[in-house]
């Protein structure tokens, strides 16, 4: 679809959240279609996880987004989908790859939302494809267990914070989950959640560096818990790390099922977003260093540095591999 | 959240209706949460009334709106909520108060929408807070009875009206109530109604003075009757009074439950909006005087003058009090 | 309502699809109201057909659209509605007619969606009005049978197409039908479908001529089949014909009820859109000629030429009649 003014920031760059939402919609469609392709209990595919995704180049208002999706692996109860986003300037005809993403879906019964159904297996062209898919499946399973443990943290307000401290840029928003946010099962689309997360992360980044910012990448996101229609969700973000030219922001989503259900507020999702600051010509600008004050902030900064260096090393290894 | 191009007029000023909608969403969330805080029948808080609110300074595209809400009084069956809106330029970090509003909600049972539930009482820091709240409660109760009587009026089309007459600028729009306009109970959010009312009032004001206009204040609004999903609502506005630099517009909302229910069209809400005209530099401009023709129009003009002078006197009294 | 940035293209011209959506909303409201005007089974009017409509002049951001609707004929099971759209510049007060459209609706029972109810007859001022209405009714009935047969075609992707060929500009989008797209019966509003069709047609036109384009007219559209909530719809467009200054694009809508229903993908709607290319001053520009390659493309080009010449002849006849 064509990118509209409301999809973009003041500088005309489309929000990463808009792109994540389109990616998730494509993934939900292809995996729901696949899981219903054999006669049996009707179901809706729910997003369980998005793998780390890089935003290779920013999109602009008026460009057309081409989203294509393909199922790359099926386990007994989950579907792996590869989604590619190409942006096309329809006036010049120029096209470029904007995003590649990998998503995991789980089919839930339309009649009983707590029942996970079986996934019809796909055919692989080569045996190695199945083996590689299985390896990815095992890896993400492990990683999901890990983030589940990290989920206890909360963000507290700070009075009169100094510029460039964590408290200075931390932000949160609340959103009442309405019908248009939800799937046929009455649960929030994963894409809607990701769009809100990107919105908060973008506010944190802009508050910190006070320039035009764009999403550079999103770390793997795990959707541990569904969020029901009528919930209030609180999306909170705080900066955890800065390199010379990038900022890492941790975002939490808490759901508050305050009507109709005797249940406590719970952590539904958390993730790391990386932002860069762009000059008017679209070049990356230096970013003010994050000032850490508490022990927790210093620890999180070091952890963020670890993720940054790991990603950098991985990218260099890939480039060397590509150059061989 | 960040203000988008669709939230604003051509001059980049955010519509008052967008701000009213955010205020009401915040009020609905906090009061619904409070009314469900004790075990008992689940409920949804429905907007009963918004007190007069002033728009202290216009917001612009790209600014972030910070909305905070607090419960200030509870009667047996209603909740009073104070909502503050701060606008923040995230690039400069500058913040200012945009709005302060007081809203009254009533908890309706999720199982039986016609049943008003009891509100859990709040604790007051000082006895005077409870007494002042009670006084506000009694005052609004009286005022709600009064507007109920005024509600019989209708707006008729005028052929070939002269510029600056009432008929020249009067306007109306219709809207089919869809699922995304409604609460869990299937009734229109008060904030959605107020946004439509501001849209019509803005069109009336722009037709009259043909310049860039912004909402300056909204008089108390009483929500006498709920509006159900599937209704068509007609929102009509006509100018009632002009001072040198302001315009008062009366707005009616009529609901037409034309499907599924054997019921006549009825008046659901009515209110007065005050608009000012702004120059390119954001200074208030003189406004052409409203030409009244009929006896009714002259009477409404005088009544509007009364409200204008009363508000002016109240504001001067507050400023003197503040100066002491 | 006021036209917003998201309603328009980059040049500030409001999308034809936005206008079609407003027209259909007005038609659905007036015909649903009429069909429920007598005691009996409650119903919702579903769009069956839109007659050919011309976009007489483009609307711009900030203008107000005035939509008025009137019932002009009723048969036993259908309602004909005339809708007029006027655009008004509220700053200058200038008004002009933007569109005139004729729509046909059929009342479906709210309790049993497959049951078509009877329409209360309207009163005609003159006997000729009824006769002319009956003639229009018979004509559209014939035409609906014809398009039903044409509906088998599909659009296949082309690898590395040459500029200005059919394959070069053909486009498609998918959309997951959500609650806010649907009527009370849980089926997609005809207006939502037409807005998506116009979006795809606009992308095809822009890809072909790489300039600012606007919708000039839409041929009669028949809605053969309803589309249910939860379906995925694929909207595909391909260019069929170019004259010196216009482009004809054929658009198909296919619905895929992949959840909850054991049914194949089916063709729900198809139509022809005509676009023109505009200079910065709003004058029509010459359009590159469409290069046809296959026999089918050549045949469709000739058929498009037939429609183009027929419309041109009809318009000239009308102008001569008006001049007499």
3D architecture notes:
Chain A is of the alpha+beta class and 324 residues long. Chain A folds into 2 domains: 2-146, Hotdog Thioesterase (Thiol Ester Dehydrase, Chain A, Roll); 166-323, Hotdog Thioesterase (Thiol Ester Dehydrase, Chain A, Roll). Chain A contains 5 helices and 11 strands; from the N terminus they run H-E-E-E-E-E-H-H-E-H-E-E-E-E-E-H. Chain A has helices at 16-35, 127-149, 166-169, 190-209, 295-323; strands spanning 43-50, 53-54, 64-74, 79-88, 95-109, 171-176, 212-218, 221-223, 232-242, 247-256, 266-278. In chain A, strands 1, 2, 3, 4, 5, 6, 7, 8, 9, 10 and 11 form an 11-stranded antiparallel β-sheet that branches. In chain A, strand 9 and strand 10 form a beta hairpin. In chain A, helix 1 (16-35) packs antiparallel against helix 4. The model of chain A has no long low-confidence stretch (mean pLDDT 89). Chains in contact: A-B, A-C, B-C. Chains A, B, C: Its main location: cytoplasm.
User: Largest chain-chain contact?
Assistant: A-B, 28 and 28 residues
Instruction: Give the ordered list of helices and strands of chain A.
Output: HEEEEEHHEHEEEEEH
Mean pLDDT of chain A: 89
Give the count of structural domains of chain A: 2
Number of helices of chain A: 5
CATH class of the largest domain in chain A: Alpha Beta
The separation of the N and C termini of chain A measures 38 Å
In the CATH classification, which architecture of the largest domain in chain A applies?
Roll
Q: Which oligomerization state do the chains in this entry correspond to?
A: homotrimer
Q: Structural class, from helix and strand content of chain A? A: alpha+beta
What is the alpha-carbon Rg of chain A in Å?
20 Å
Tell me the overall shape of chain A. globular
Strand content of chain A: 25-35%
Question: CATH superfamily of the largest domain in chain A, please?
Answer: Hotdog Thioesterase
The largest β sheet of chain A comes out as: 11 strands, antiparallel
Q: What share of the residues of chain A lie within helices?
A: 25-40%
* Count of strand segments of chain A: 11
């Amino acid at each position: 679809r064509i990118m509209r003014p409301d999809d973009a920031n003041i500088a005309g760059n489309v929000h990463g959240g808009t792109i994540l939402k389109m990616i998730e919609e494509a993934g939900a469609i292809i995996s729901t279609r696949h899981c219903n392709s054999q006669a049996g209990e009707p179901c809706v595919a729910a997003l369980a996880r998005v793998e780390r995704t890089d935003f290779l180049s920013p999109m602009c208002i008026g460009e057309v987004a081409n989203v294509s999706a393909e199922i790359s692996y099926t386990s007994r109860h989950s579907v792996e989908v590869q989604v590619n986003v190409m942006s096309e300037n329809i006036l010049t005809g120029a096209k470029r790859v904007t995003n590649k993403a990998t998503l995991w879906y789980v089919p839930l019964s339309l009649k009983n939302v707590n029942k996970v159904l079986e996934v019809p297996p796909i055919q692989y062209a080569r045996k190695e494809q199945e083996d590689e898919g299985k390896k990815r499946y095992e890896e993400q399973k492990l990683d999901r267990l890990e983030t589940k443990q990290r989920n206890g943290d909360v963000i507290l307000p700070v009075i009169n914070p100094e510029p460039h401290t964590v408290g200075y840029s931390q932000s949160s928003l609340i959103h009442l989950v309405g019908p248009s946010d939800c799937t046929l099962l009455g649960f929030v689309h994963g894409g809607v959640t990701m769009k809100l997360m990107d919105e908060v992360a973008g506010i944190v980044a802009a508050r910190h560096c006070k320039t035009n910012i764009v999403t550079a990448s999103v770390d793997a996101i795990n959707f541990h818990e569904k969020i029901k229609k009528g919930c209030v969700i609180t999306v909170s973000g705080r900066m955890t790390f800065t390199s010379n030219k990038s900022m890492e922001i941790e975002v939490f989503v808490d759901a508050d099922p305050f009507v109709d259900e005797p249940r406590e507020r719970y952590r539904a999702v958390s993730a790391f977003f990386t932002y860069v600051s762009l000059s008017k010509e679209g070049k990356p600008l230096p970013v003010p260093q994050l000032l850490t004050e508490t022990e927790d902030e210093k620890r999180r900064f070091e952890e963020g540095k670890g993720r940054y260096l790991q990603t950098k090393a991985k990218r260099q290894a890939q480039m060397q591999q590509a150059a061989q």
